[in-house]
What we know:
Layout: H1 7-13, E1 16-21, E2 23-27, E3 34-38, E4 42-50, H2 54-60, E5 68-72, E6 83-85, E7 95-102, E8 107-112
Antiparallel strand pairs: 1-4, 1-6, 2-3, 4-5, 5-8, 6-7, 7-8
Amino acid sequence: MDFSAYAGYFTALYNDDVYLFEPVTTKDPVYKSSITEWQEPVHVVGNVQAYSGDLAFKEYGIHATCEKQIFLPPTVTVSEGWGIAFSPDATEPELYVKHVEPNKTHTFILAGTR
Length: 114
């Protein structure tokens, strides 16, 4: 199926800068615990919207105000647990990926605080 007819729509849709942090987990040999560090962020352009509404409030309660829904191009690879920032000089993520739903035209991400 050819989606080239929608190219102009998605070009206008993706206008927000998003920085994706992939977690790297290592084992601490002394304390036998896991340490999570973040790789260098990857810049992608997407659409960031507030996750709000009655359904969001019923599902997440008061924490729904901290949630964001992010639409990224379908070629972007992201998994649950990754970090997201919106500033180019961020060293730590601001939000964390809670849900990923890939589609043919976009990748839907629900991100929020831990």
